[in-house]
Amino acid sequence: MNAPREVFLQPGDWHFGGPDLILRTLLGSCISITLWHPQRRIGGMCHFLLPQRCGPRDATLDGRYGAEAVASLCTTIRQNHSKNSEYQCKIFGGGNMLHSQPPRPGVEEPCADVSCRNVRAAVQLVRDAGFTLHALHAGGRGHRNLSFDLNSGEVLLRFSGTDAQIWRRAP
User: Fold this and answer.
1) Per-residue DSSP letter, 155
2) What is the pLDDT of residues 109-160, one digit of tens each?
3) How far apart are CA 130 and CA 4, in angstroms?
C-alpha cells in the first residue's frame, strides 16, 4: 500500500479528497472545519481567516472567508453525490494571538476580537449547512497544529496554549 499523500493548507485554502489523503494546517486565530464521511472515507478541510467579506463579493468563492469556504465544500459534497448531513464535522482554531487589551469599564464587548468572531461564525455556518458537529477545540491563547487523516477520520491536534474551549459529542 502506498503512503498517504499530504496536503498542507495555507490560510484561505480548502481541499477535499479520499482515503489516501492527509490534510495538515497550522492555526492561530483562523479556523479549520473538517468534514468526514465515515462510510465513503471522503472529506475535506478549510482554513479561513475571517467569517465573511466586508465588501462586495465577486463571482468566485474565496476560501479566506468562512461563509465562502463552507459554500465551496458544500458544492464539492454535492458533486460527490453525498449530503451534508452524512458528514462528521469538527471545528478547530480561534486562538487569541494578540493578547487583547482588558475590557474597558462600562463598554460591553462580548466578542470584540477576530478569534471570537471566527469561532461563533464557524459554529453557525456548520449548523446552517446541516452538518452534525462532533467536536470543537477553540479559543484560548496559542496556536494549533492539525493533521486530518481521511482514511480514519482522525484529527491529530497539537495545541501550544491554554484555556481552550473543548467540546466532544457523546458517542
Assistant:
1) E
2) 577 789 999 999 999 999 999 999 999 999 999 999 999 999 999 999 999 8
3) 29
Its pTM stands at 0.90
Handedness of CA 20, 125, 75, 27 (dihedral sign): negative
Q: What is the CATH number of the domain that holds 20?
A: 3.30.1330.200
Three-state DSSP at 125 gives helix
Calpha distance 53→50 (Å, rounded):
8
CA 88 to chain centroid, in Å, comes to 12
The verdict on residue 105 lying in a domain is: no
Residue span of the structural domain in which 137 resides: 5-97+112-168
Give the tens place of pLDDT for each residue, 38-59: 999 999 999 999 998 887 767 7
